[in-house]
Amino acid sequence: MRALFRMTAIVALASAALCASAEDAASIYKTKCVMCHGAAGDANTPAGKALKVPSFSSEEAVKQSDTALLEIAKNGKGKMPAWHDKLSEDQIKGLVAYIRNMQKKS
Length: 106
Known about the structure:
This protein is mostly helical. It has a single domain (21-105), classed as Orthogonal Bundle (Cytochrome Bc1 Complex, Chain D, domain 2), CATH 1.10.760. The protein has five helices and no strands. The protein is globular.
């Protein structure tokens, strides 16, 4: 019985952590990324258009590996700034997962 209780507690804590992580990624995206990438990831913003930011649903973005997206977010690319000194590794990974989820919805 104790083992079942422990396992239930572990699963509940893990689920809460995953939900918190998804909320954190959404919040970070809204505060750091929306200006250029747009709320839907379509880059349909004045800054996105001016900087020629590709939509996350574009073939170019979809074919990128998670590792490549992590590197772009960490180190920047073109006019996109590097975020390695402002966001943690886990936050950047959460953003990549958030972007992948947006791509599924497109």
